[in-house]
Specification:
There is one protein chain. This protein has about 325 residues and is an alpha/beta fold. Helices cover about 40% and strands about 15% of the residues. Strands 1, 2, 3, 4, 5, 6, 7, 8, 9 and 10 form a ten-stranded parallel sheet that branches. The longest helix is centred in the middle third of the chain and has 16 residues. It is globular, with a radius of gyration of 19 Å. The N and C termini lie far apart (about 40 Å). The structure holds S-adenosylmethionine, 6-(5-methyl-2-OXO-imidazolidin-4-yl)-hexanoic acid and iron/sulfur cluster.
């Protein structure tokens, strides 16, 4: 491989003018000796971010369970027997009370998730009120509500939504092994609608679903070759949920996970790479390696949507040991 080519490609892509990445170049970087890979990722990271700052987001499930989609990893799909109790859309005031607590605990972004295929007209008024309320609290707002058409995306934008999360989850090749009720192309359509409406895109995927290394690389190549790099790239490590088709999946080898983070950092230099679901199953040392590889965002709090997260005390201790500070909100 041509080492110079990779070094330049790693250092130069700019948001909005991203060069196209080939699978071969991406795979060659993923396969570098671990120390070379981490050095390169950390170099790119330092050129674009303060290496000792990590952004804190907080999640809330505003509508839990009973989802018509069949995502093989998910506790909330009505196709699986995870034992999760479904609930209706939360009241706006309750959501905002939770958001206030998150703000007081240091989160700068509030992410609200609903187990929907796509939002229904009757829910839009409440969703808009949640976005407006979070904004009034002085936090960034993020929603993840399933598929959106352009009109829906524009309405969320008008309400002031900052980010929309919609993941591609895995490579195009592996996708149909995991989800059959909506296609990879559907996901890309929603991402285009979000981008075209002017909302910032949060898009990533899951590793540890029995995919091959080439699938992890391809997933990141798809993200890096979008017309614009997603502003946030959540990399989730599968949380195996009993009763789902992936409940017994073999855990991913930690070094492979760190390589995935490093490649995301190198290919999307200016994006926030989020060390997302799965941190309760990671050692402090593994998380430290992920931060060194360029992860600079996490979810805080003791629950994600339905699954566990390390919680404030553990994260405060980890940050103290690593000399990491929460990233402050930069308002334009
Ligand atoms: N229903 C919406 C959707 O799927 O677009 C939003 C919520 S959904 C739970 C958001 C993302 O969380 C999924 O795309 C997936 O990447 C991640 N996720 C869900 N369950 C997970 C699990 N058990 N382990 C790791 N990541 C998971
Ligand atoms: C993302 O990529 N990860 C978050 C967020 N986007 C919405 C969700 C993780 C969910 C983990 C499983 C659960 O809590 O049910
Ligand atoms: Fe539904 Fe989202 Fe879970 Fe898929 S990941 S089953 S769309 S809640």
């Amino acid at each position: 491989m041509n080492a110079d080519l990779h070094l330049n490609a790693a250092a130069e892509p700019l948001k909005g003018a991203s060069p196209q990445w080939s699978r071969e170049d991406a795979q060659a970087i993923y396969d570098l000796p671990f120390n070379d890979l981490l050095f390169r990722a950390q170099t790119v990271h330092r050129a674009n971010f303060d290496p000792n700052r990590v952004q804190l987001s907080r999640l809330l499930s505003i509508k839990t369970g009973g989802c018509p989609e069949d995502c093989g990893y998910c506790s909330q799909s009505s196709h699986h027997e995870s034992g999760l109790k479904a609930s209706k859309l939360m009241e706006v005031q309750r959501v905002l009370a939770e958001a206030k607590k998150a703000k007081d605990a240091g989160a700068t972004r509030y992410c609200m998730g609903a187990a929907w295929r796509s939002p229904k007209e009757r829910d839009m008024e409440a969703v808009v009120a949640m976005i407006e309320g979070v904004k009034e609290l002085g936090m960034e707002s993020c929603m993840t509500l399933g598929m959106l058409d352009l009109g829906q995306a524009q309405r969320l934008k008008e309400a002031g939504l900052d980010y929309y999360n919609h993941n591609i989850d895995t490579s195009e090749r592996y996708y149909n092994e995991i989800i059959t009720t909506r296609s990879f192309a559907d996901r890309l359509d929603t991402l285009a609608n979000v981008r075209d409406s002017g909302i910032k895109v949060c898009c990533g995927g899951i590793v540890g679903m029995g995919e091959e290394k080439a699938d992890r690389v391809d997933m990141l190549v798809t993200l890096a070759n979008l017309p614009e790099h997603p502003d946030s790239v959540p990399i989730n490590m599968l949380i195996p949920i009993e009763g789902t088709p992936l409940g017994e999946a073999e855990p991913i080898e930690p070094i492979e996970f760190v390589r995935t983070i490093a490649l995301a950092r190198i290919m999307m230099p200016k994006s926030h790479v989020r060390l997302s679901a799965g941190r309760t199953a990671m050692s402090d040392e593994m998380q430290a390696l992920c931060f060194f590889a360029g992860a600079n965002s996490i979810f805080v709090g003791d629950t994600l949507l339905t699954a566990e997260n390390p919680g404030e005390d553990k994260d405060t201790m980890l940050f103290r040991r690593l000399g990491i500070q929460p990233m402050e909100l930069v308002t334009e």
